[in-house]
Amino acid sequence: MPNHSLSPRQYLILGLVAISAPLGDSCLSRGMAAIPAITLAHPGSLIAAVFTPWIALGILLLIGFFASYLTALSWADLTFVLPATAFGYVIIALLARFWLHESISLERWAGIALIALGVGFVAQGPSLTQHPTAEAKESAVSEVETR
Amino acid sequence: MTTTLPAIISPWVAAAMIAAVVLTSTTGEVLTAAAMKSIGDLDVIRAQSGLKGAIRAVLTCPLFFAGVFFLALAFFSLLFALNHLNLSLVGPASASLTLVTNAVAGKFLLKENVDRRRWAAAVLVCVGVYLLAH
Q: Which one, A75, A121, B53, B106, has the greatest CB density within 10 A?
């Protein structure tokens, strides 16, 4: 595969990466803001926080995120996958606008535009760096395949 | 004691909390990415030896656990920061800074081909995330 175009399945996984991380983070934030302030003197209360409902839900979402993130990293570069993660914030903002009817300020629209532009840049390029050795190996494999 | 998100935290302490999140998560992400590259395409492995085989391939990679260790550190420093600061500060600040540190680490540590297109994307997304969540 010289041009590393992604399959629909791979786009689906990038989509999961994008949406599960910000949803999980929101759950964590909601959970952490609801409990009393934690100090370094009582680090054990951080462990107890893990078992409150919002934080547990956030952790479940983040486990789903991690599985799809690992899969994505196995066939794409880190610098390719990370902008996709940021695209999740755009999805959340648009959901908030059109589903929850929250208002979005001009600043936020500008942020959405910049992220979309950045993701567009990366998505046009190759998803995986070809190192000389890997390239040699792959061309050898494709040679064998074409024979 | 009721919880209002405090105004007593100095900017330096806030910056240190955010720096801790950024440094630990960058280290964790770079190690994890290196681990996944060394394992190879998970979809291919799964097609050959099933989901169990794919999980085994990941769990037998020492580099993966080094990555997870730092990601766990990043997670708990994020929880700690969220307990003292607003998500609207911690989220965009750590997410956008991590993008840039990862682009640098991707280029020099993972030897990824970070071309002008990817640098531009890292900066655009960084500013975008900040504007969006500020």
A: B106
Q: Which of B125, B126, B127 to mutate to test the interface with A (most CBs of A within 10 A)?
A: B125
Q: Where are the domains of chain A?
A: 8-146
Alpha carbons B37 and A58: distance in angstroms, whole number? 27
Torsion of CA B101, B102, B104, B109, to 10 degrees: 130
Q: Which residues, in sequence order, are CB contacts of A136 under 8 Å at separation 6+?
A: none
Termini Cα distance of chain B: 28
Structure tokens at A66: 């991690």
Pair of tokens at residue A47: 């462990």
Amino acid making up residue A95: L
User: B53 near B45, Cβ under 8 Å?
Assistant: yes
A33-67 tens-digit pLDDT:
777 777 777 777 778 888 889 889 999 998 999 88
Residue of A80, A118, A111, A81 lying closest to A93 (CA atoms): A111
Contact B91 A36 (CB under 8 A): no
Condensed to tens digits (0 to 9), the pLDDT of residues A119-137 reads 888 877 788 887 655 544 4
In contact, B92 and B130? CB cutoff 8 Å: yes
**Nearest residue of B to residue A80 by CA position?**
B118
